[in-house]
Amino acid sequence: MPVNSSELVGMVLGTCTLEMLIGRGGMSCVYLARQHFPERYVAVKILLPHLLTQDLDRASFLARFQHEANIIARLEHVNIVPIFTYGQQDQLAYLIMPYIPGGTLAQMLEQQKKLSIQQTLIYIEQAAAALDYAHSQGVIHRDLKPSNFLLYPDGRLVLADFGIARLIQHHEPLSHTLTPAGMLLGTPLYMAPEIIYGKPADQRSDIYALGIILFQMLSGELPFQGENTFALLSQQVQQPIPSLHRLNPLFSNDVDIVLQKATAKEREERYPSAGALVQALKHALSWSCQITLFENTGRILETPSIPYTPPHSTFPLADNPLTPASSRETPQKSSATPFSMWLLCGLLLIVMLAIFLGLHGSSDTPLSLVAVPSTPAETEQAKKVVQRYYKNLNQKDYQAAFELLSPQFQQSIHGLAHFTKGYQDIRQQTLTFKESQLQANGTIVVVVSLSVEAANKQRNIYLWRGILRKQPDTWKITQAHLCQLAGRASAFPRCSPTNQAKWGTT
């Protein structure tokens, strides 16, 4: 048998010729291979006995391999990697599986750092479907991590590597003999406390790991990062997951509650299923002003193909990076147009909060995912108007800011005096552009996130959406909607009939 994995390239195993090493783990290597009968490219996973500890004898090694193959073979789900066949040759045990060219979730996170909310929901829903199905078959994964989630170019996610999966039914003969004494099976970065303590794992152990992965997708960071394995395991056992809201105020405390429950140290306090976790996450995200937020670096898919929609998915897939999410009672259908969804969002915002925050403009690049093609010159002109408007407000030049509103908007606010009065308690306002989009009626929608510091140094986070229309001389702000995302009670008045007129909320 070859002494290292690179020497296996070119070897023929069964009907496959190994062409390239594409992955390696503690006990196995994965190769891209050409299968001759039938002719296609496949992935061949080889378990390497010489990588194992000496106290794991050959019989135990092969028993574990056959056990893994049988587990995977009986799992038939659209989000689980199937196996075509398995065998043994030249002291090598191998699995033949589909070759999936889209990379892994780990590679996507390495490239993007964090994912948009829409990406996260697309992938977490598919992961949950795979896990709930496996759990219903009496199988737990036990080693969930981003590198075990493979991606097809169309956005479909599949779960791979049940290599250390164990049957929940502990009476099965192999369940206690496949792991040599003292071997830590699993990845400490995602390991549930009960596994660290050596207790039997169940489906809630997978839910713990899924909660860690969810935190990583939304924040771009791992919640626990010890200097060594011992420190990391201590954090997993003792420390609660950090607050995502503190890292990014755009996420509400409701999302923190979901993450805390998913990663509770006592498994009895976690969600009973992965599907329950996803539903709670959707509820928490939709509760924040009914808006799905997208980071400037986010993108929906690695390739410009049609997004994959998981079976029975209730999350709407859309190209617009800022659209109303599903409501608390009735989910929005994916066939809704961007205009109708924005109209619904505007009505919801009317009832919730007031309008008009000024701020000091920043030069952040707007998100490039837009549903309607726009002319760069026009959208840049509109953005500069918004930027100038906020700069005037920060400089207390209320007259100059007021003149950037359309005559109709000025009238709805009842003049400069009412307009100025609303900003007396505001100390500083800072914006980040999120979206600029040309509409079919010739208007341009500009979306920004706002960080507002009041005179008492209280800070709040808002999402502001303004509509601009070309006037004879320049672009003017004709409408605006405001939604508080984070912070204490707003320094701005909430929407009553009087305040709606005062602040120009439409």
Automatic annotation (TrEMBL):
Family matches, as CDD domains: STKc_PknB_like
All copies of domain Protein kinase, residue ranges: 16-286
SUPFAM superfamilies reported in the protein's UniProt record: NTF2-like, Protein kinase-like (PK-like)
Assigned EC number: 2.7.11.1
A GO molecular-function descriptor: protein serine/threonine kinase activity
Keywords: ATP-binding, Kinase, Membrane, Nucleotide-binding, Serine/threonine-protein kinase, Transferase, Transmembrane, Transmembrane helix
Residue intervals passing through the bilayer: 339-359
InterPro entries xrefs: DUF4864, Kinase-like_dom_sf, NTF2-like_dom_sf, Prot_kinase_dom, Protein_kinase_ATP_BS, Ser/Thr_kinase_AS
Annotated positions binding ATP: 45
Broad enzyme group: transferase
UniProt region (Disordered), positions on chain: 312-334
Keyword NAD: no
Biased composition regions of type Polar residues, renumbered to the chain: 323-334
Pfam families linked to this entry: DUF4864, Pkinase
The protein, known as: non-specific serine/threonine protein kinase
Species of the source: Tengunoibacter tsumagoiensis
